Amino acid sequence: MSYDLVVIGTGPGGYVCAIRAAQLGMKVAVVEKEPTFGGTCLNIGCIPSKALLQASERFEEASHMLPKMGVGVGAPKLDLPTMMKFKSDGVDGNVKGVGFLFKKNKIEAYQGSGRIAAPGKVEVKGADGKTQTVETKNIVIATGSDVAKLKGVEIDEKRIISSTGALSLDKVPGKLLVIGAGVIGLELGSVWRRLGSEVTVVEFLDRIIPGMDLEVAKSFQRILEKQGFTFKLGSKVTGVDTSGKTLKVQVEPAAGGKGETLEADVVLVSIGRVPYTDGLGLKEIGVALDQRGRIKTDPHFATNVKGIYAIGDVIAGPMLAHKAEDEGVAAAEILAGQAGHTNYDVIPSVIYTFPEVASVGKTEEELKQAGIAYNVGKFPFTANGRTKVNQTTDGFVKILADAKTDRILGGHIIGAEAGEMIHELAVAMEFGGAAEDVARTCHAHPTRSEAVKEAAMAVAKRAIHM
């Protein structure tokens, strides 16, 4: 078979790229090595983790919040197998949805491991060992990322687990030790803490969620500690003794010094992700990689080999599903002769804990480093009517605007439903909006989003409710 485009990988970047290309009139095929579509995100990442975050949050709400509201339901009982089925049903629905979209858009799907034999030729090796060759004008690599390994700590997905294993535990660990205070570790740590685990997080750096605004990170850490998290910052795990009934975790100061041994029932290794390019044949055909193993591309997602493109986690930039989706659309449009584009200055990120943490654009630290003069507008949820009456007042909205032009350069929110509110600032930034534009936009009352308006007003030191 011959195609206009073959996409290797059907995660958010890959399947979106394939669909957009088909919409633009191309004959498209996809190659997927796993039995189901959707990649890490739909199968063992974003989607199942959100199901468990939602379920565990409701469990904790029934335990602590409902009685305050006058809703007596008694002590909730955890049925973990049913909770896991709730998660699996959600995954199944999303995965089947991608399959439906492929059929709707007349996209051919090849199940098996893809290898680029040459420009324009993709070999697909099925589970039965049989190989077939697919010919195409263009190839888009969208194979995503894999769990980063920690030297000296062997993941068995039973007692020493990755994010994959953390989504499928058959019982609540008494003590869960999380290595890495990034997004994934804090989200999955939140799930099991709500269900009864004692959670300790060990982080090499002297702060949590590296890359996010430091003020937000410090506030977030205090909130998590109040919830029951224990943090050991500036520390590293040097080994895990698995010989006993409980795990013995060796922890040392990152800067060197006397170590200590911590006990845990389960250890979650969550130190990041790395590009997944194994078996693609990139070295053989001469596709260039950078020092971190990412595929090098130009601004149009083209590699150094004609007809081969790459998007998503395998190239530079934040490893976020929506970033990959935007790149998938842009790459398809470029291949169709259109002006596809991804604006890397306006890619929101969200941590789906409670409260949520959301950001878009620059942090204060980045603006200081770049020598850009800016003004800050901040508004706490303690002064917002909706959050006050709902007793969800943790957090604040923070807007960073250019000191000369008032153009919004960054937005940061920590609070309930922050992930939904951040998009107002993202849209404003896409249109080159100023803080005053948001401040003068009427917001419905009573809503949490009024805090965004007030933060925008605070940039000019004219917030009303504080």
What does this structure look like?
The protein has 466 residues and is α/β, with parallel strands linked by helices. The chain has 3 domains: 2-146 and 274-335, FAD/NAD(P)-binding domain; 160-271, FAD/NAD(P)-binding domain, CATH 3.50.50; 349-459, Enolase-like, domain 1, CATH 3.30.390.30. Helices cover 33% and strands 25% of the residues. The strands form 5 sheets. Strands 1, 2, 3, 4, 5, 6 and 17 form a 7-stranded mixed β-sheet that branches. It has a 5-stranded parallel β-sheet with strand order 8-15-9-10-11. Strand 10 (198-202), helix 7 (214-227) and strand 11 (230-232) form a beta-alpha-beta unit. Helix 3 runs antiparallel to helix 4 (80-104). It is globular and about 65 Å long. The model has no long low-confidence stretch (mean pLDDT 97).
Task: List strands and helices in order, with pairings.
Blueprint: E1 2-8, H1 12-23, E2 28-32, H2 39-44, H3 46-65, H4 80-104, E3 108-111, E4 113-118, E5 121-125, E6 131-141, E7 145-147, E8 160-161, H5 163-166, E9 175-179, H6 183-194, E10 198-202, H7 214-227, E11 230-232, E12 235-241, E13 247-253, E14 260-264, E15 266-269, E16 273-275, H8 282-285, E17 308-310, H9 321-335, E18 349-351, E19 356-361, H10 364-370, E20 374-380, H11 385-390, E21 396-402, E22 408-415, H12 418-430, H13 435-439, H14 450-459
Helix pairs in contact: 1-9, 3-4, 3-6
Please summarize what this structure is:
The protein has 466 residues and is of the alpha/beta class.
Annotated CATH topology of the largest domain: FAD/NAD(P)-binding domain
CATH class of the largest domain: Alpha Beta
Q: Could you say how many structural domains there are in total?
A: 3
Major beta sheet summary: 7 strands, mixed
